[in-house]
Amino acid sequence: MQSSVEVLRGDVPGTEYRFKVLRFGPADIAGPSAYLQAALHGDELPGVAALHYLIPRLKLAEREGRLAGRVTVVPFANPIGSGQVFFGEHLGRFAFGSRTNFNRDFPLLPSDDTSGLPGDEAPLPVEKRLKARLVKLALGHDLVLDLHCDSEGLSYLYIPKPLWPHMADLASCLGSEAVLVWDGGSDGAFEEAALSPLVSLPQDSPEWARRAVTTVEFRGQVDVAPETAEADADGLYRFLVARGTIVDAAVAPPAPYAGLAVPLENVEMTYAPTGGAILYHVRPGDRVRAGDLLCEILTAPGEPGGAHEVRAAQDGLILTRRSHRMTTPGDDLLKLLGTRRSTTAKPGALES
């Protein structure tokens, strides 16, 4: 294993940011290469925990000569967001300076040539230089996995349409309970940046079958435990074996994927009609029918009309819900995977 540290100049004199990059296998090894990063949203840590258990297995495979392709791992991909603590609360989703989601506005390139991306000397905010650096690290790999989590939720994947169902093996290996298949754009998310050099390929190109690009959502933010982390690492390892990056005869091929796969436009984003305290009547994994009560928003507890009901727009599966219990008008409350297109579906990412 080769360990190096990437350094980013801060936006004011006397500051800088650092993050570690781990590389396994020689650069010229011929097998499928893989890039895995975690904590792009600095307060989403299940992926970090999974990599803690995966890295020793990568070291062992390297020592035993079982690496067929190079592997690059970035355990903490966002040192800016990882350090954003406000009055004791870790807030790693949006950059404090620009209020931009750290997983938006990545550069979208037509090829794997990253020579035109800005370097650390460019007169740009550090968050933009970080995004350029991550794209430089990721492009050129065959398998690109961006490890995230939701607020509270099931384990699920975002997968670009040209890569589905070719990537059903990853969903099976990780035990994902749902796959959201997206088409078009995702507001420049890292996943879209990794896909960008491939978009000119025809749909029937054999290249799609050997590639993987995805955002992995490892359940919820508090699901950081040895048991789940080790299980997630096992799934990642099985996938790398299945794709030929690692050789391990003891690992069986993945079973057919048995979970849901739905178009992104079938996701019902359910919003708070008013501010107040949330009383959820459902949890991730529940099946609901149209009209079922999902939650109540309490504005005047115990008084007539003081509880505002939020009901299901259609039949489906509760995929996620927010972990906070005080909401404001228009706030995202939950994601419901429906059986038809949502009437509120819109292009781009589901959430800000």
From TrEMBL:
Cofactor(s) named in the record: Zn(2+)
Domain of life: Bacteria
InterPro entries to which the protein is assigned, alphabetical: AstE_AspA_cat, N-alpha-Ac-DABA_deacetylase
GO molecular function: hydrolase activity, acting on ester bonds; metal ion binding
TM stretches of this protein: none
Boundaries of every Succinylglutamate desuccinylase/Aspartoacylase catalytic domain copy: 30-240
Record's keyword terms, sorted: Hydrolase, Metal-binding, Zinc
Protein name: Succinylglutamate desuccinylase/Aspartoacylase catalytic domain-containing protein
Native species: Oharaeibacter diazotrophicus
